[in-house]
Design goal:
The structure is a single chain. The N terminus is likely disordered. The chain is built from 27 helices and 37 strands. A hairpin with a 2-residue loop joins strand 21 and strand 22. The chain is about 30% helix and about 15% strand. Strands 26, 27, 28, 29, 31, 32, 34, 35, 36 and 37 form a 10-stranded mixed beta sheet that branches. Strands 1-2-4-3-5-8-6-7 form an 8-stranded mixed beta sheet. The chain folds into 4 domains: about 425 residues, Zn peptidases (Aminopeptidase, 3-Layer(aba) Sandwich), CATH 3.40.630; about 110 residues, no CATH class; about 80 residues, Alpha-Beta Plaits (2-Layer Sandwich), CATH 3.30.70; about 210 residues, Rossmann fold, CATH 3.40.50. Helix 20 packs antiparallel against helix 21. With about 950 residues, the chain is an alpha+beta fold. The longest helix has 21 residues.
């Protein structure tokens, strides 16, 4: 086999078809390889489980007398069985490449949440590296067609080069890409193969070798701690550490709109510095290599050019790798192409191409036997050569496929380089022209509409995406509409017009689409921030001149008067919980009904700050920081009110799933709201009342048994602790054994906590624990309903409008909901002819605070499909199927239990730093934890 591999490599031929190889050998070979590094052919062949799982392009390491190879640096080939490389060693290797080769340049583009560097590596011929700043300037000019005419673009084109960006190491348990890019970078830097020379000459390849280094290091240490040497795949213990980044793991790749995390911000900075034509994410989940393009429906705001580009590119990869003799390469039937909130979407949303691979990964670096699902081995037009059913799969197999695919698409891009540049310009030009010629032409955002801080947050999010925003220095009118001074105006004659429209209009996913969405289908900022935005279809708005908003908005509040009593009007402000903790040492009272002071009206939920020493001095910085307005009064108003003590707040993070709950921790940290991290260990230990008053248990992706029993105890004991050998473990929390969950005893401890006066708040699928785990009796999942709400904004109505959870909201609102279980609340006691007292009795509707549906419109007539029979359509943004059947089902429960409460949300009010208008629902439950009302009679 080694002799055959060596002879095939010498000819640049495939290993799978000797007859075809002999025919090809007679032809000129543009892919003829270099002189192999001694021993590399044999090492790669030994690490590859079958010859068909490799290609001649990657079956050797090219020899260099001056530039260190991965083998020189690591003492082994990249992708060797049973070995993983930490971020520091990977970075050392790329810096060694930089020092040794004039074709490589390394820079730091950010730092992770734990302080590790995030690197960017640029590779081109020496001339390309020397004029890198010039190439960046050309691409920046092409990104804005308002300052670069089509004629000037054509003049720049001969000098221009596309940047092709490869993103590795985003998901920590997809461990192969960070190994592969060392091999790829070295090959691109030293190979004199004609194909590689053309890539260096026509492109600049950008590589982020470890885009999320915190998770990488945790995963590498996890492998050596728990997986090394174990090769029975079905019997492996947990294959991933409980944490990757400080906050989330899979959801690190759902952050393109928000830019909450360091990895996203680093790639975003890179994009606006280099303006790459392509961002290409390297993931590992599907056999054997799936190249993204989506089934459709595609986002309607994408330029048709990009839709064609990523289809063409993915089909090229399928053809190229299949021709090289590699089975299991396919495209199309994965994802839909409607939602673009992933890391590669930074490109899709800004007139470039977002792409991705899913190669087959084991997570472990050991070679293991794998069995593929029957649905993934059928021969289809999009999968012309399926993967085998059963095979052994190695880390080097994974990197062989990934690197071959990257070389194939870099070869294609080098041959299409000028067209990639031209199309990049055309997409920006088309977006700008649509803003000039098609409605809408602008959006106007009033500056002070309930929560000026949330208005500023939304505008800042637009600015972070390089969407241009102006501010009106004086009042202005468009047609019959008048707007006040200070209004923010997004005029759409700009290159990112399409993305602006996508962010500022509701989404409408086709309900009859053949394929269901892969992830969320609503991200409309006005809907999710609760901010009114007026669409302007009159083109005359483009003739007006507004002051450009250049810096992030920093709204401020004020304290009016000298007390001794201060009042804060509840206008739905998001910052109230943060303010309560800033004022934790002072007494705060909350009005239970509306009142009037002079000409000022205050709604229920408004604050009364009684006279007390030192409060005036603290209110001033709090008001300025959080954009809250306090008004003084001579005496407290005569109104029913209750004291609102700042509770000891806990967030329970189960070891089995720390992901989505990480967004809660992120938000609390950002808003500087103190909380206690509660582990399974703390739940099992009991006496929670000594630690916290209010315990939040957020949305998880676990079924009920996994929520109770967690990581299988058979894997334990499994410490997650910091040690000299495993220094990255133990953050942000630690345990001597993360297996076993809370168990039945922990569930009993939660019940005891509530019965003794604690408040348990459950969100999303976390509410399964309360509603189906026995903490709340009598609630049942609804019968078969066919409802699908895959991340959509839906209408709901308060059944108890005077409940504290409703403070700051109108009676009818919209909230964000994913595909959670739908629950019933029976309207009468359950009676059976043979037993009338077998059950405790169902939870009745008095314990429901919010239900799905809208207020009656009074218009009469039959409801249309998709409508709540009582009023407006339930769907506000996104998409769904049979969502109208939600009407009348509970959305929030508030159930007294002993001396405490369980508040169960059938939605997630804290979803990915997105649905800020829902935060107050959770905040209100926390603020009023010690004075939640008895259910109405």
């Amino acid at each position: 086999m080694k002799e055959l591999a060596s002879s095939c490599i010498a000819l640049g031929l495939t290993l799978s078809n000797p007859c075809a190889d002999r025919i090809a050998a007679a032809q000129p070979n543009p892919y003829a390889p270099d002189r192999p590094e001694p021993g590399s052919v044999e090492a790669i062949a030994a690490a590859t489980s079958e010859p068909r799982f490799s290609s001649p392009w990657v079956a050797y390491v090219p020899e260099s007398d001056t530039v260190p190879s991965p083998s020189d640096h690591l003492g082994r080939i990249a992708g060797a069985a049973g070995e993983l490389t930490g971020s520091a060693q990977i970075y050392d290797y790329f810096r060694a490449l930089d020092r040794a080769s004039g074709r490589v340049q390394v820079e730091v583009i950010g730092r992770s949440e734990e302080g590790r560097e995030i690197l960017l590596v640029a590779i081109a011929d020496q001339g390309g590296i020397q004029k890198l700043e010039r190439l960046k300037a050309i691409n920046a000019a092409l990104a804005d067609p308002r300052r670069t005419s089509p004629e000037e673009m054509e003049r720049l084109l001969p000098e221009a080069r596309p940047f092709y960006y490869l993103n590795a190491g985003l998901h920590a348990d997809e461990s192969g890409s960070a190994e592969m890019v060392m091999d790829l970078a070295y090959r691109l830097a030293v190979s004199e193969q004609p194909m590689i020379q053309a890539i260096r000459r026509e492109l600049v390849v950008l590589i982020n070798p470890v885009s999320e280094p915190d998770g990488r290091d945790k995963m590498v240490e996890w492998f050596y701690r728990y997986l090394k040497g174990k090769q029975e795949f079905e019997r492996l213990p947990r294959q991933s550490p409980p944490y990757w980044s400080r906050y989330v793991y899979v959801d690190i790749n759902r952050d393109a709109h928000q830019q909450a995390f360091a990895a996203t911000r680093a790639v975003t900075r890179m994009f606006f510095d280099y303006h790459p034509a392509v961002i290409h994410d390297l993931h590992e989940a599907i056999p054997l290599l799936q190249t993204w393009n989506g089934t459709g429906p595609y986002n309607p705001h994408l330029d048709p050019i990009v839709t064609s580009e990523f289809l063409e590119m993915s089909l090229h990869e399928v053809t190229a790798l299949t021709a090289l003799g590699m089975p299991g390469v396919w495209t199309w039937k994965f994802g839909e192409g409607f939602g673009h909130h992933y890391l590669e979407s930074i490109a899709m949303n800004h007139n470039a191409i977002g792409r991705g691979y899913e190669t087959f990964g084991n997570a472990t670096a050991e070679t293991v036997e794998r069995v593929v699902d029957d649905s993934e081995i059928t021969r289809e037009w999009y999968r012309p050569w399926p993967a085998p059913k059963r095979f052994r799969w190695s880390m080097r197999d994974n990197t062989n496929y990934m690197q071959t695919g990257c070389l194939a698409i870099l070869d294609y891009s080098a041959r299409q380089a000028k067209e990639l540049v031209r199309n990049f310009y055309r997409k920006g030009f088309n977006s700008w022209q649509r803003g000039l010629s098609q409605p809408p032409h602008a959006y106007v955002i009033a500056p002070d509409q309930g929560d000026r801080r949330r208005v500023a947050q939304m505008v800042n999010r637009l600015l972070a995406q390089r969407i241009e925003v102006g501010r009106a220095a004086e009042p202005f009118s468009i047609g019959e509409d008048s707007f006040p001074a200070g209004s923010y105006v997004v005029q759409l004659d700009q290159p990112y017009r399409n993305y602006a429209v996508d962010l500022l209009e509701p989404q409408w996913f086709p309900p009859d689409a053949e394929y269901q969405p892969y992830d969320d289908v609503s991200w409309a900022l006005p809907v999710h921030y609760g901010v009114e935005v007026q669409r302007i279809d009159d083109p005359h708005v483009l003739d007006l001149v507004f002051e450009k908003v250049a810096d992030e908005l920093e709204p401020s509040g004020r304290v009016h008067g000298a007390g001794p009593v201060y009042l804060l009007r509840d206008r739905g402000q998001e910052a109230l919980l943060a303010a309560r903790y800033r004022l934790k040492d002072f007494q705060i009272e909350i009005a239970e009904s509306g009142f009037r002071i002079g000409d000022a009206e205050y709604t229920a939920g408004s604050w009364i700050v009684p006279a007390q020493d030192g409060v005036a001095a603290v209110l001033d910085p709090v008001s300025r920081e959080l954009a809250l307005d306090f008004d003084s009064a001579a005496a407290p108003p005569e109104v029913p009110r209750h004291s609102a003590a700042a509770p000891r707040l806990g967030v329970w993070v189960p070891w089995a799933d720390t992901d989505m709950i990480g967004w809660i921790r992120y938000t609390l940290d950002q808003q500087k709201i103190p909380y206690i991290y509660i582990r399974d260990d703390d739940i099992k230990a009991g006496e929670l009342g000594k630690l916290v008053d209010v315990l939040i248990y957020g949305h998880v992706r676990l079924d009920l048994p996994a929520q109770i029993h967690g990581i299988p105890a058979t894997d334990g004991p499994m410490p997650y602790t910091k040690t000299p050998v495993y220094p990255s473990h133990g953050a942000p929390a630690s345990s001597e054994d993360i297996t076993g969950g809370i168990g039945w005893s922990g569930l009993a401890n939660l019940q005891r906590f509530v019965e003794q006066g604690g408040v348990l708040i459950t969100l999303g699928r976390g509410s399964t624990l309360a509603l189906e785990g026995g903490l709340i009796r009598g609630v049942r999942p609804a019968a078969e309903h066919g409802i699908s709400t895959p991340g959509a904004e839906l209408r709901a109505r308060f059944t108890q409008p005077d409940h504290p959870i409703a403070y700051g909201y109108p009676k009818s609102i919209s909230v964000f909901r994913s595909n959670y279980t739908v629950y019933d609340v029976p309207r009468r006691w359950l009676e059976m002819s043979y037993c009338t007292s077998c059950l405790d009795g169902p939870v009745d509707p008095r314990f429901v605070v919010l239900e799905w549906g809208s207020e009656p419109t009074g218009a009469g007539g039959d409801a249309e499909a998709g409508d709540d029979p009582g009023g407006l359509p339930i769907l506000v943004s996104g998409g769904g199927r049979n969502e109208e059947r939600l009407a009348g089902h509970p959305a929030i429960f508030d159930v007294p239990t002993g001396r405490g409460r369980i508040i169960a949300f059938n939605l997630n009010p804290m979803h990915r730093d997105l649905n800020h208008s829902d935060y107050r629902l959770l905040w209100n439950a926390i603020l009023n934890w010690n004075h939640l009302p008895a259910p109405p009679p």
